[in-house]
Amino acid sequence: MTLLVEKRQLVLPGDILSEGDFNPGENTYRENGKLYASITGLANVAGRNIYVVALKGFYMPIVGDLVIGKVVDLRLSGWIVDINAPYTAVLSTGEAFDRSFNSRRDEMSDYADVGDLLVAKVVAFDRTRDPQLTIKEPGLGKVQQGRLVRIMPTKIPRVIGRKGSMINLLTRETNTRITVGQNGLILVSGGTLEMEALAIKILHMIEREAHTLGLTDRVEELLKKEKGSSVEQEEK
Amino acid sequence: MSKKKSEKLINDQGLRVDGRKLDQLRPIKIEVGTLEKADGSAYIEWGKNKIMAAVYGPREVHPRHLALADRTLFRCRYHMAPFSTEERKNPAPSRREIELSKVIREAIEPSVFTELFPRTGIDVFIEVLQSDGGTRCAGITVASIALADAGIPLRDLVVACAAGKIDDQVVLDLNDIEDQKGQADLPVAISPRTGEVTLLQMDGNMSSEEYEKALYLAIEGCRQVHTMQRDTLKKKYAREHEVAVEAAGGEVESSESENQHENEGEATNE
């Protein structure tokens, strides 16, 4: 068995990664005992697993993901929600009302109408049927206020950071509430206008520099600098 | 289509009408990510051909009933802009464009992991802005780059190139005049990793020896274009992800095109 790529090497679809006894991870495929990349990205090796971190991609729903979506239609089955994925999600009517839903008594649009944003969790998805959402958990439900940021879904792990280090740093320093949807939509709310703007600026910076090393340190630095300058302005 | 030999296509020095050698490609320039609103896009200038490709998806299929239960619906539209030819072309899709859409789709689809996204659709649009022969090959080449740019899982980058016969000689990459006045045209698309042929057409007459020579010449041309395809994609992602390549350090062979990025100062504490 031979490994044919270096760690963090840029690979293109069809590039060979290894020969012999390796396990195909994310964005790779096996053919005649060899592993190849199926996407443009950075190759990585963890033990016997080889995977490719995508540089560009779209969101595929996974059960348990927190997502932010937009209501696009109301049907008898429930709200049809665009979650920025190849499939539209469904939030069933029973989710929003405490009692069982009765179309004669209850008006769906009282809870959420077309165009409203929802923070929800994916509860079921297997590609043969559209993803099902739930809002029956604290912190989920209709978005009342805040600002929405859209970044590439492949960069979301970087926004969160290792064990949430990045997002914790950001919320702490800017004193805002940041809801990160796995589908690439992020809601920033609850802070002053300047701090929300700063948080958004940094989120975009993280997206741009997601693949670089030592990003958390640089974000910390920038936060200090920006906050310092805003204090100076206030003093003037 | 009758292909008459009327004027000389190869001069006494053995050069063709545009000054190329028999086995020489036209100059090729490729750009990636040219359209902001598309999920993936690319643009190619292949000689005087100018072609744009846009990829959308995987996304919901409209009309809904076309969706397939076991795989992505892969759709392809090859279209020539009204101003892309000498005489104005009617913008309505012609018989030829519909046929080309089909053969291009069939050339590219084997490289796409369609089974990963059942019930969705991927749409590829190939728009010819200026044409000078060999647009189907350039179209396949550029669409494949746009698919990679969209982040769609692919088995390989499909690449195409034509060979043909003019003045009784087998030559590479025919332009419009050579295609019109030459004796035969042989467009070939391959999947370079395996060498599988995904498109093979022929127009005109060749002996079986000439055919074989032309086929291998076209495949050789494909390999050259494939290198350009790879360089373009690598360069684009290396530029956007400069530090990523740099973080890989000198590990990336210095023969690669990325070593122009000198960005040493990055911390490596991850």
Note down, in words, how this protein is organized.
The complex is a heterodimer of chains A (about 240) and B (about 270). With about 240 residues, chain A is an alpha+beta fold. Chain A folds into 3 domains: about 1-55, RNA polymerase II/Efflux pump adaptor protein, barrel-sandwich hybrid domain (OB fold (Dihydrolipoamide Acetyltransferase, E2P), Beta Barrel); about 65-140, OB fold (Dihydrolipoamide Acetyltransferase, E2P); about 145-235, K Homology domain, type 1 (Ribosomal Protein S8, Chain: A, domain 1), CATH 3.30.1370. In chain A, about 25% of the residues lie in helices and about 30% in strands. Chain A contains 5 helices and 17 strands. Chain A has helices spanning about 110, 155-160, 165-175, 195-210, 215-235, and strands spanning about 1-5, 10, 15-20, 25, 30, 35, 40-45, 50-55, 65-75, 80, 90, 115-125, 130-135, 140, 145-150, 175-180, 185-190. Chain A has a 5-stranded mixed β-barrel with strand order 9-10-11-13-12. In chain A, helix 3 runs parallel beside helix 5 and helix 4 runs antiparallel to helix 5. The longest helix of chain A has 21 residues, at about 215-235. Chain A is flat. Chain B is α+β, with helices and mostly antiparallel strands and about 270 residues long. Chain B has one domain (about 30-245): 2-Layer Sandwich (Ribosomal Protein S5, domain 2). In chain B, about 25% of the residues lie in helices and about 25% in strands. Chain B has helices spanning about 95-110, 135-150, 175-180, 210-240, 240-245; strands at about 30, 40-45, 50-60, 75-80, 120-130, 160-165, 170, 185-190, 195-200, 205. In chain B, the strands form 2 sheets. Chain B has a 5-stranded mixed sheet with strand order 1-2-3-5-4. In chain B, strands 6, 7, 8, 9 and 10 form a 5-stranded antiparallel sheet that branches. In chain B, helix 1 (about 95-110) crosses helix 2 and helix 2 runs parallel beside helix 4 (about 210-240). The interface of A and B includes residues 7, 58, 127, 211 and 212 of A.
